[in-house]
Prior knowledge:
The protein is built from three helices and six strands, in the order βββαββαβα.
Amino acid sequence: MIEQCxxxxxYDLRVEADIGxxxxxxxxxxxNFEISYVPISxxxxxxxTKWILKYGEWIDWANDxxxxxxxxxxxxxxxxxxxxxxxxxKELEGKYKVSFSSSTFAKRYANKKK
Length: 114
């Protein structure tokens, strides 16, 4: 798929959001793939890019915390990610195993504050 991947070949992918990264990762070596190298439609690439740009809306960057409704915002983002993962699975069916890795920042932060 792309030269950065440490695996000779990978057929095990993960959809995951992170700052400054595209949405598709090698599920073995955790290499982040440039979205244009992933064999999915331009429309789905665009949807994934729009989704990834919303990552972290629940984070209060200035205060190193979460916004007041951060857990809910993160959950909405994760639900959208699951739907997009299903679309990726459908487009790559029979070629790749695709899983989803949800964001847990807000939940972990809230539990840490208790």
